[in-house]
Amino acid sequence: MNPQQNFNTQPAQQPVAQIQNGGLVIVPGEDDVLNYPLAPGYSMAFVNSNFTNLWVKTSGLTQLEPPKYEKYQLTKESMSAQGVAEPKDNPDYATKADIDRLWTEVKKLRSKGGETK
Question: In the predicted model, is pLDDT for residue 39 greater than 90?
Fold first, then answer.
């Protein structure tokens, strides 16, 4: 066997690092977020395995600056067929029908002479 036949002239291919899950890193818990190494000036998003929490870790521009952490709690919302979130029964806001009903009552009170300042 000729030794030159086994010589590969093509350079070895390095594995290409790919961002998976849309740039999210899945971690078991908050301790893993705190200990995850991050280059200066970068941000990374982390989610726990059941997708209930999201953390954003941002490192400072120098290694002297401490990293910043933000934690978010994720909630699932149902979507309509048009892709718009369906409104929830929330007493903290009024619908247009509520405002129209109240405006009608105000007009009735004003017409009865009960106008207030």
Answer: no
Q: What per-residue confidence (pLDDT) applies to 55?
A: 92
| 69's tokens | 């952490």
Half-sphere exposure of 71 (CA within 13 A, CB side): 8
Cα–Cα distance for residue pair 64/36, rounded to 1 Å = 17
Please report, as a single letter, which amino acid is at residue 25.
V
Class of domain 18-76+89-111 (CATH, top level): alpha beta
Rg, C-alpha atoms of the chain: 29
Q: Which of 72, 36, 27 is nearest to 52 (CA)?
A: 72
Residue the block writes with tokens 């933000």: 70
Are residues 61 and 40 in contact, defined by beta-carbon separation less than 8 angstroms?
Answer: yes
Distance CA 74, CA 53 (A): 6
d(C-alpha 30, C-alpha 56), whole Å: 11
pTM: 0.48
